[in-house]
UniProtKB/TrEMBL annotation:
<feature type="domain" description="HTH gntR-type">
    <location>
        <begin position="18"/>
        <end position="86"/>
    </location>
</feature>
<dbReference type="GO" id="GO:0003677">
    <property type="term" value="F:DNA binding"/>
</dbReference>
<dbReference type="InterPro" id="IPR028978">
    <property type="entry name" value="Chorismate_lyase_/UTRA_dom_sf"/>
</dbReference>
<protein>
    <submittedName>
        <fullName>GntR family transcriptional regulator</fullName>
    </submittedName>
</protein>
<dbReference type="GO" id="GO:0003700">
    <property type="term" value="F:DNA-binding transcription factor activity"/>
</dbReference>
<keyword id="KW-0238">DNA-binding</keyword>
<dbReference type="InterPro" id="IPR036388">
    <property type="entry name" value="WH-like_DNA-bd_sf"/>
</dbReference>
<dbReference type="InterPro" id="IPR000524">
    <property type="entry name" value="Tscrpt_reg_HTH_GntR"/>
</dbReference>
<dbReference type="Pfam" id="PF07702">
    <property type="entry name" value="UTRA"/>
</dbReference>
<dbReference type="Pfam" id="PF00392">
    <property type="entry name" value="GntR"/>
</dbReference>
<dbReference type="GO" id="GO:0045892">
    <property type="term" value="P:negative regulation of DNA-templated transcription"/>
</dbReference>
<keyword id="KW-0805">Transcription regulation</keyword>
<dbReference type="InterPro" id="IPR036390">
    <property type="entry name" value="WH_DNA-bd_sf"/>
</dbReference>
<dbReference type="InterPro" id="IPR050679">
    <property type="entry name" value="Bact_HTH_transcr_reg"/>
</dbReference>
<dbReference type="InterPro" id="IPR011663">
    <property type="entry name" value="UTRA"/>
</dbReference>
<keyword id="KW-0804">Transcription</keyword>
Length: 251
């Protein structure tokens, strides 16, 4: 585990105008964002940080608490403070839960990896991912089924150069693990936030065929943008959900 920049005294430090605890917080946050520390890493103890930064343990504790509140760190009683990973920490796939009514159990789902491809990014997707127009994107296609009937078709887009081995990942992993956790574990890129847009739409012929629907059938269309540290987007996702089932979200 690498560790750098403990000094707060540099004349050129842009954080010099901040209180000591805030400068430590910014310094530690840079360690996390630069991936010097990976999700799950145990950071140095409060006493060690206190010595390295030349401040009191109380000041260090306040800095760490700020990062805990912001979601960059989490504490384990009796063990220490760790770098946080994705806000989705279950091996289950949480984005596509469905319940017929409140309090009813989630039906069993089956995940099928369909294909991967690399293509020049459409302008609007590149804009969402903060990339130049035409940047090569990796597209992953997956299908979620319930009772052997298609439920959701998912298209996920990533910058191909940023995730070079993703296309060669064993497809069985996409069927048994949450994609967010694969990205975190293989690339040190946890999901810190995700935003969604949804609307009713008409299924294109290729979508209708996969979902086993008549052409021009209505579907629920969802767009999702997932971001890692510093609100930098890394995945744009389109999902097409069959009518007649309710998506479930808990907040």
């Amino acid at each position: 585990m690498q560790y750098h920049e403990p000094s707060l005294q540099s004349r050129h430090n842009p954080d010099n105008h901040l209180p000591a605890y805030a400068r430590i917080s910014q310094s530690l946050r840079r360690q996390i964002e630069s991936k010097a520390w990976q999700p799950g890493d145990l950071i140095p103890t409060e006493s060690r940080l206190s010595k390295e930064y030349g401040v009191s343990i109380g000041t260090v504790r306040k800095a760490l608490q700020e990062l805990v509140i912001a979601g960059f760190l989490y504490r384990v009683q009796g063990k220490g403070t760790y770098v946080a990973g994705s806000f989705i920490r279950s091996k289950d796939h949480r984005f596509y839960r469905t319940h017929a009514a409140f309090g009813e159990p989630d039906p069993e789902r089956r995940f099928t990896f369909l294909r991967s491809s690399t293509e020049p990014g459409q302008d609007f997707i590149c804009r969402y991912l903060q990339l130049e127009e035409g940047t090569p994107l990796l597209k992953l296609e997956r299908l979620i089924s319930i009772d052997d009937r298609p439920f959701v078709l998912v298209h996920s887009y990533f910058e191909a150069a940023r995730f070079p081995e993703l296309a060669r990942t064993d497809p069985r992993r996409f069927e048994s693990e949450a994609l967010t956790l694969i990205i975190e574990e293989d690339y040190g890129t946890p999901t810190m936030s995700a935003s969604e847009l949804c609307c009713a739409a008409t299924a294109l012929p290729e979508v209708a065929a996969v979902l086993q629907l008549p052409e021009n059938s209505p579907v629920l269309f969802l767009e999702m943008l997932s971001c890692s540290y510093n609100e930098i987007p890394y995945e744009y996702r389109q999902s097409f959900c069959v009518p007649g089932r309710k998506l479930s979200r808990s907040y």
